[in-house]
Amino acid sequence: MTTTAEHATGQAEDHLATAGQDPLADLREATAAGRTEAGRLLAYLRHTARLSQVQLARRIGYSATVVAHAELGRRPVSAEFWELADDALAASGRLTAYGIRIRDLAMARRVEQRRRDKARHAERLAQLLPLPHGEDDTVPAAPAVPATADTTPAAGRCPHCNQPVTLVTRIAAPPDAGTVKEPVTGGLANSSLSAHTARR
Asked: Residue 137's CB: how many other CB atoms inside 10 A?
């Protein structure tokens, strides 16, 4: 069984498929036209039954003001109102059908309004939060830095045995963005004491 919300969503989709450039305006016009037609039929049936607005209002449990607004199509009334008026005036379901149509159109209009509000909200977010690296959102690759090694002979002599010490330094590629740079140590801590070790 189709629920009211599902039916209203179907109404919105039907209007979006057949409407022009402004489907929300089309839904407003359709709702207003439905209220006007239902109000005219209500007034005609009430006059045919020789009832005043006050008398009809007492029979269906609504105020005479609501009956007047319904006949003029000025303000929305509930589907229950149209169903009760249909029974009181023996309208054979015609007023009930109008009430259901008006309710579905009003709900379809709210569905379309929410869809439009979400689209505007997404557009504002896109304007406030531009892509950090351009429209394609791709991060440019860092240039490759080949690792090279330089050997500096006779960087010094061992203070204990007075043998020459060879210092080897290595240049590494820069770290990626967002990573913590490791401290670079130098001096004899990274030296290759090849000559000194070989003799020992």
From this structure: 8
- Structural domain boundaries of the chain? 4-128, 148-199
The reply to whether the predicted model has a pTM over 0.85 is no
Average pLDDT by consecutive 10-residue portion of the chain (200 residues)? 43 49 85 93 96 96 95 90 96 95 91 89 82 55 52 62 67 55 46 44
Q: What pLDDT was estimated at residue 169?
A: 58
Residue range 4-128, CATH number: 1.10.260.40
Name the burial class of residue 88, with classes exposed (0-12), middle (13-18) and buried (19+) by CB atoms within 10 angstroms of its CB: buried
Residues 160 and 156: their CA atoms lie apart, in Å, by 12
Dist. CA 72–CA 74, nearest whole Å: 5
Measure Cα distances from 21 to 18, 29, 52, 153 in Å.
10, 14, 43, 80
Where would I find the H helices in the chain? 4-18, 23-48, 53-60, 64-72, 79-89, 94-128, 194-199
Q: How far apart are CA 33 and CA 46, in angstroms?
A: 20
CA distance 180 to 170: 19
